[in-house]
Amino acid sequence: MKADNFQKNLISRHGPPRAKVMGIGGSPRKNGNSDVLLRQVLKGVSQAKLPVSSVHLRELQFQPCIGCERCRKDKICTGLKDGMSIIYPEILESRGMVLVSPTHNYNVTAWIKAFIDRLYCFYEFDDNRPRGWSSRLAGQNRRAVLVAICEQEVKEDMGYTLGAMRRPLKALGYDIIGELPVYGIFDRGKAREKREVLAEAFRLGKELAGSLTS
Q1: Domain at 205, CATH number
Q2: pTM exceeds 0.85
């Protein structure tokens, strides 16, 4: 079977999304603060007995979007065959998403940016200029929680990190039910010592689970 057909058939096997949550970690640093907080949010989800899965983008071999536009016809990315091909079905199947990124130069990491750009394949466009658009993920009661971690201690120094995750997910059809900005943490795993932060991450996980089952 050709690779393109394999990808399209892989996607077509999935029906409507289920009440489950996929966690996406965007940090290049293993066992760092982003990993700690992602686990904590998913722990809150799991307490509500919802299934969870997670992926750390640093462990995937994948490229940024190359703008080939093949997805307009194929309804999934067929211009690239890489690690994103593995997780597209999980994205389609999960109504919940947790997106976590440290702040790099006032913004999300390159891994998160590339991941978001590769979700372009879920958009539909018309042929007008400027083109009208819609998302095939919209209208499915999708929910998301966003977490951003910054070494500095003031909101301005986190820059665009949360907004760079929020606006694309909302455009795709996700209702952002909670955001957790975390300031003043840099040393690896230091978030484990921040009880209030851990408690809020856990609470957001529970809230996300509740929004998917209510």
Answers
A1: 3.40.50.360
A2: yes
